Amino acid sequence: MIQKCAIPDILTHDYLMNALCKSGDLGRAEWLVAEMLDRGPFPTCATYNTLMKGYCIRNNVDKALDLFSTMASLGITPNIVQCNILVDGLCKKGLLEDARKLLEKILVDDHNGKTSNMITSTILMDGYFKTGNMVEALAWLEEIFQMGIRMDVVAYNVIIHGFCLNGHMNLVYKYISEMFKCGCLPDVFTYNILIGMLCKEGKTNEACYVFNVMSRMGVTPDHITYKVLIHGLCISGDVDKANAYLHCMLVNSIIPEPLIWNVIIDGYGRHRDIQKAFFVRDQMVAFGVLPNKYTYNIMIHTVIRNGNIDDAHYLKKEMLLSGPLPDLVTYNLFVRAACNLGHINSALRLCNETLRRGYDPDIITYTELLKCHFLRGKLEEAEELFIKIWESGLPIDHVPFLVLMKKYFKMRDLDKAYDLYQMWLKRGS
To answer: Where are the PPR repeats (predicted)?
Structure first.
């Protein structure tokens, strides 16, 4: 456009600014502002809003504040959107006192209207709730009331989420009731907060009831609603019910992300229901969702736990042929299975394969090999392996020490047990 002597307008520049900030190329975004100041068109509040938000997203609030100051010297009057961006950025960085001072300045100026001030106050209140500072959060809640503003659903959601985070369940229900009394109907975020809180407390029946109420009220559950509820049901052991909600998602044309499928597969795996676990995996593929490494690791863990080593190797072969490739967790599962069967040579071959695949064995790998040496009565090999672990610089936990120490106690070799104990004490120094 410039080569053809056509000067791009402000809208074109703002689109480009937005693209640069979204891609994280803030250096070129700043260059664009400099070009606009030099050649035109002159940047507007919207231009600076985008750049400031880009810096805040990348946790560089100081740079955003510098831009805020620069605007005044250029004769650009900041608007409430920029104030909200800065307050939100300061809160996320934990600088709540700075955010409070900025908000107080906004409230003193009071040229942006009560509703805009409530948005900024809500952002700050959310920051206080998330840091557990209930006193300050409630103080800003009182400030909102004193403004005489009718609270919207966003403000109520912040309050309800804040009380959930801090365990004040009576106040959660109080403000949900207040929402209905004020004619402010809960939205999908409100219901998601409540369902998440109930699932966290293990009250899955109540969570399912809220889900039904939500549907009757005409609020369509989203993928987060289903994810939270399915995860909660699987944790509580009601995998069939979780699977029923998965079916609801599919009926409503919501294709679950791999995490949701994996949670249900894992749930059936924990109940040793391999047939249903494989059925869900096949259903996942049929709906165009490719199994990831977590899916395969869950399946491999399940079949190994049920003693089906051949099926586990078939799954590993499937990973090698069509992806995703096995990772260290996959190999550790097979190493553990081989060690539990006393097949030390197979375990060592797997370790070599791990290295060929570009993975370094970790403390879990070595601990399993250590146990296997003991099972076969090969104390010398176990001691050599322990020294290798010690000298490798790997972060070592208590398990290898306990494995070796128990063996020394059984052999009544208290001197070696004591020396090992001294090594254990030194590991943290």
So the answer is: 9-43, 44-78, 79-113, 117-151, 152-186, 187-221, 222-256, 257-291, 292-326, 327-361, 362-396
